[in-house]
Amino acid sequence: MILLVILVPFTLGAVAFAWPDNRTRPALLVAGAIVHVLGIASLWIQPEGPVMNGYLFLDAAGKVVLTTSSVLFLASAVYAQGYLRHRSDRDNRVFVGGLLVLLSAMTTVGMAQHLGVLWVAIEITTLATAPLIYFNHNPRSLEAAWKYLLVSSLGIALALLGTFFLALSGAGPDGPKSLLLGDLIRAGPQLSQPWVRAAFVFLLVGYGTKMGLAPLHSWKPDAYGEAPGLLGALLAGGITNFAFLSVVRVLQVTTAAGEGAFARDALLGLGLLSMALAAVFMAGQRDFKRMLAYSSVEHMGILAVALGLGGSAVTGAFYHVLNNGLAKGVLFLTAGNIHRAYGSKRIDDVRGAARRLPVSGPLFLAGFLAVTGTPPFSPFWSEFMILNGAIASGRYLVAGLFLLFLAVIFIGMGATVLHVVQGSDEGAPVVPGFRETWLTAGPPLLLMLAVLALGLWLPRPLMGLFTAAARLVTGA
Amino acid sequence: MGAWTDMAFILVVVLDLFLLASSRLGAAIRAVALQGALLSLLALLLTGSGHSVGHMLVVAGGAFFIKAVLIPWLMFRAIREMAIRREMEPLVGYVPSMILGGVGVVLSFAFSRGLPLPTNEMHPFLVPTALATVWTGLLLVVSRRKAVTQVLGFLVLENGVFVFGLLLTDFMPVMVEAGVLLDLLAAVFVMGIVMFQINREFASLDTDALSSLKD
Questions:
Q1: ipTM, interface predicted TM-score of the complex
Q2: What number of C-beta contacts closer than 8 Å exist between A and B?
């Protein structure tokens, strides 16, 4: 089953490149998504041991991220049916094929237990994403794709150097001479500590670039702003979460080697910086898709802060991966609908979305409330858990800054969102022939209901999974 | 033998500095190609008793083909088809970037002295050369405007990573090395395609024209 959920999307991706008919090709996305969701569900019911000599294995941390992305991909795949029908003028061969290859690569990241395999899979996600950002084939999307490719490639090259450092740290006479996660963690203190420390710096910069942590986030506003909404959802709720998972893997090794305190301080610093930067750039943002990009910077910052705090905050981090992923799905998919209904993503042009788009408009507002941590939506609980972790460990300054940034971001983002949603849409640009359909409004609605349901009631197995995932990192 | 290896390492660093000071694209591409050839030579020269010779031949041959032949050829084709002007207009001037590069070389030697290798050392110049080359690559990417030069910078960065990877040939699976080469090819391939598109859209390969997305 582990190999199946990697190979089926990949094969379907190849089929998509060969498929002759532009109108029926998007159906392959739904086929791939359904197989993937069923495969992950079967791995929930019947867990499997490691395969391929232990290179691939679905552990608790991978399961959290992979389940989130699987659900998000299904929602995006259904949404894509409506979206690509609306954009039937454009050849969708590369788009559909690329998305399926991306799903396959993301699944590999989720299951990789070998840092070399992990690195290769992360590289493939980058290569698969760049052409997707260029879907609209205009100068602005070209610029965004170029920036994404260049900045991500730099990050990936540095991550490779970091991976080499880590391999070297275990190359001593007693070392494991391996990049398998299990071997490295078992070797623990036998690894050469200075090299582990150097490796962590390079790997954090490398995978941090893919996560979009400040100050390595420069690709994010452009890529999210120019990419189609559903790709934004997969970037913000999928790829960046997998980059977070890669950082978690590195942190597992670093902690086992006895350099955990240094690593956590670095994460805490980058996380708080990301939240601060998001707060600054969120205020007065005139483009609502770019605003969502800064929201993604903020939430990756929250995840980094939680990892940096350690202890119970790490459980909150994995909970937040799920909540943020689903809420970002709502925001990006509805933002895509609003963008198409007005033909603009500038808030000077867009107003009264609640009136023009009776489902997507209110959902955009609800998604904003959820993602900024308003009860009873589920992100509130995960952010609360992280804050609690900060206070429990006596980090009052961190807790205070965390709350301050959340409050500033709530106000800054709220101003933009309310401007888009409220009021009358008279005088705003009209795109003839656009109508909201269930294919484009249904998926974000279901995601929103999931965010609400998870906020009201968290099933015990899920909580158990978050705790198990956190235990991998904290070792407690 | 030892003198040749020393020479090869020194030449790699000299090429780094040359690239930082070079204003002509053709010369820069040739320098990167030469650097790639030197790397494959180094891979052979450093083959000790512990390695399987066949494996090293494959790695060296692959590196030579991709780094010294294929990619330079692609780059030459790209600049010919786009009829790019000779000189590059750097954000950071040639002299300052040379100085920064020199500082990088010194720091690389200091860094590798401070971090003793846990394994037996292959060559005292290996780690500093790798780090200096990575640093040069980073400098080139951030301080140059032309898309072609940025790709060249990325190649130099990858060359540095490759030099460091030579340390691991004893125990790294082949797959990861193949990943290095594959990555290089794939990255430039995609970048090349994007470059052609940039050309079509802007009729120039100046990434400064790519600045409508700002906050």
A1: 0.88
A2: 121
